[in-house]
Design goal:
- This protein has a single domain, classed as NAD(P)-binding Rossmann-like Domain (Rossmann fold), CATH 3.40.50.720.
- The radius of gyration is 21 Å and the shape is globular.
- It has 402 residues and is an alpha/beta fold.
- The protein binds nicotinamide-adenine-dinucleotide (NAD).
Length: 402
């Protein structure tokens, strides 16, 4: 490194530290403990995809816990600008508009001082889009995750690295049998749900790209000793979720029913998912970051588990009762790869971190209905499907909702 570059790097680091101390000082003045206590407590977390649904909830949470938060996002998903505005109204954070496919930009962010934790959420999130544009899907989910992991290895190897993986890495789960019980499907031979022992079976381009990333995360933990883990998330829901038909079905059903848009049910509507409120997920992230020894180099299925399940038609029933009117439905065939049931076995995470979901489905759905209701103008600007559009920072296409 030349002398000029070295001076520049030292100057940037001291500026960052001064800002951090000022922030701590400001927080301490508003009653958050002594300056020294606050400084000792302040840890740094990088949240990729931090302007998205889970990301902005996580950023707000860690900011209120006195973490120094850096949000990294390319703002390719519609609604991210509104999430950022919401965040800046109530949280203290730094923002980096970066595409995770841009390796030099990732290195720049990670070399600005060490992070204590990295929560990697940035992704192409829809199976449907991955089928129409597998190249972009691979670039973001597989290569983008590799960029980040490798940069963490070089610049912040002690950071606890949490990867938002997906239950889609298990594919069809041919060993699990299901049957119709009344109005919903259930497993006959998986009473606790799907565990981490289920064989991996990447069934779609999205499954492949997330699955490849999931395995890289575990391998970087084994080979390089990075305290990294894959959280194989099931269906997450909650406020600030700009759900569309292809992704975020709980939020989408609520948005569509409040705004009078068409809801199409593919299949018989009796298919079941376990659902987890975003606040419970973020609590699990915190517990994992605080106990790296218990999670490093492991995968965990994270969802509502057998106690927090919902069928499509059950959600429609809940909404009709809340809204006081019938919701018109359209019907279509099962889509390829649709599962009749997916329920996570969450006992491994419970054993490791003493974590359980705390928000029941009815309470959580009620909260999301209230959020959509009081944000009709914002959610009204979002379309009903995800489509591929030109990326904002690279020449490659990226995903945005239209
Ligand atoms: N929401 C769920 O139910 C669920 C379930 C399983 C896994 N996940 C995973 O959790 C993570 C977060 O999901 P979410 O529901 O908050 O989705 P989201 O779409 O709201 O958030 C993803 C964020 O990543 C950003 N992004 C996309 N491409 C990027 C790129 N190339 N560079 C930088 N930023 C980019 C988007 O702008 C967006 O803000 C994703 O990795 C997703 O695969 C979510």
């Amino acid at each position: 490194m030349s002398l000029r570059l070295l001076v520049k790097a030292v100057w940037a680091e001291s500026l960052r530290r001064s800002c951090q101390i000022l922030r701590i000082w400001a927080g301490a003045r508003s009653g958050g403990g002594t300056i020294v206590e606050r400084k000792l407590q302040t840890k740094r977390v990088l949240i990729t995809g931090g302007a998205g649904f889970i990301g902005c909830n996580a950023a707000r949470f860690f900011s209120t816990r006195n973490w120094s938060v850096t949000v990294l996002d390319n703002l390719s998903r519609q609604g991210t600008d509104q999430n950022l505005k919401w965040l800046s109204d109530g949280a203290d954070f730094e923002f980096e508009k970066v595409d995770i496919r841009d390796r030099p930009a990732i290195d720049r962010v990670l070399s600005q001082g060490r992070y204590d934790a990295v929560i990697h959420l940035a992704a192409q999130v829809a199976v449907t889009t991955s089928v129409t544009d597998p190249s972009t899907d691979f670039g973001i989910n597989a290569m983008g995750t590799f960029n980040l992991l490798d940069s963490v290895r070089l610049h912040s190897p002690e950071a606890v690295f949490l990867f938002a993986s997906t239950n889609k890495v298990y594919g069809k789960i041919t060993g699990a049998q299901s049957e119709l019980r009344g109005n919903q499907y259930g497993y006959t031979n998986r009473p606790h749900g799907i565990s981490e022992n289920e064989p991996l079976d990447f069934l779609s381009p999205y499954g492949c790209s997330k699955g490849a990333a999931d395995q890289y995360v575990l391998d970087f933990a084994r080979i390089y000793g990075i305290p990294a883990a894959s959280f194989r998330q099931s269906c997450i829901y909650g406020p600030r979720q700009f759900g569309v038909e292809d992704q975020g079905w709980v939020a989408w059903f609520i948005i569509a029913s409040l705004l009078g848009r068409d809801i199409t049910i593919y299949g018989d509507g009796k298919q079941v998912r376990d659902v987890l409120h975003v606040d419970d997920l973020v609590r699990a992230y915190e517990a994992a970051i605080l106990a790296p020894d218990k999670i490093a180099a492991q995968s965990f299925n994270v969802g509502g588990g057998p106690d927090q399940v919902l069928s499509l038609l059950q959600l429609v029933d809940i909404l009709e009762e809340r809204l006081g009117h019938k919701i018109p439905l359209k019907w279509d065939d099962w889509r390829p790869g649709d599962q009749q049931v997916y329920i996570s076995d969450i006992r491994k995470l419970d054993r490791a971190l003493n974590w359980k979901p705390s928000i029941d489905v009815n309470t959580g759905i009620g909260q999301l209905v209230d959020w959509v209701d009081s944000n009709r103008a914002a959610v009204g600007t979002i379309g009903s499907t995800l489509q591929v559009q030109p990326a904002q920072q690279t020449d490659e296409p990226s995903v945005t909702a239209v």
